[in-house]
Automatic annotation (TrEMBL):
Family named by the database record: Belongs to the short-chain dehydrogenases/reductases (SDR) family.
SUPFAM superfamilies: NAD(P)-binding Rossmann-fold domains (SSF51735)
Name the UniProt record assigns to this protein: Uncharacterized protein
Organism in which the protein naturally occurs: marine sediment metagenome
A Pfam family of this chain: adh_short
Coiled coil: none
UniProt-listed CDD domains: SDR_c (cd05233)
MF term (GO), any: oxidoreductase activity, acting on the CH-OH group of donors, NAD or NADP as acceptor
Species lineage: unclassified sequences, metagenomes, ecological metagenomes
Length: 204
């Protein structure tokens, strides 16, 4: 038996990179998993891996920038499993751009994906967890939100916002037995980082 047998977890951005690793780790620990991302075909591949571990998995195409899609993701989860124990707001992506080259469109996109998406996921999950009188929300930030990152100003601002959002929700929802925490990883060797080619292999 796994330490998370019977638990239900949602991971946004769960089709690749850090999110995929989180999803598989939860499944290995015994949880049933919902993976959400925009591309259904990528989600289906991860879902197959999770089911091969003997766990149940839903793969729900979701754009975390769109409130209705986030609400639907949580609703489908609760309709299917009857509960939601853990919400991992992982979806996000940086776009390496020097400050004076950032357009308003790019600024809004990066903040919507990396910060508003965490807000929407937390609100949708929080409503369910308050009714359940328990739950855990884990938001994935970045060291870029703590120390800044050259050429990633909008991403750094968004991730700093995730950290403060987490602190506020932790204080607000503790009375409902909801734990809200944040993890701030540094550069991680994902496919996106490889494509950027911005760091030498020895750094990673």
């Amino acid at each position: 038996m796994g330490v998370l047998d019977g638990k239900v977890v949602i991971i946004t951005g769960g089709s690749s990179g850090i999110g995929k690793s989180i999803a598989l780790t939860y499944a290995e620990a015994g949880a049933d998993v919902v993976v959400a991302s925009r591309k259904q075909e990528n989600l289906d591949k991860v879902a197959e891996e999770i089911r091969a571990l003997g766990r149940e998995c839903l793969a729900i195409s979701t754009d975390v920038k769109i409130p209705e899609q986030v609400d639907n993701m949580v609703k489908q989860t609760v309709d299917h499993f009857g509960r939601l124990d853990i919400m991992v707001n992982n979806a996000g992506r940086g776009i390496p751009t020097q400050p004076l080259e950032i357009s308003v469109k790019e600024w809004n996109h990066v903040l919507a994906l990396n910060l508003t998406g965490v807000f929407l996921g937390s609100m949708a999950a929080g409503k369910v967890m308050i009714e359940q009188k328990q739950g855990k929300i884990i938001n994935i930030a970045s060291t870029a939100g703590v120390i800044g990152s050259p050429g990633m100003m909008h991403y750094s601002v968004a991730k700093a916002g995730v950290i403060m959002l987490t602190k506020n929700l932790a204080a607000s929802w503790a009375e409902h037995n909801i734990n809200v925490n944040c993890i701030a990883p540094g550069f991680t060797l994902t496919e996106a980082i490889k494509k950027w080619g911005i760091l030498p292999p020895e750094y990673l």
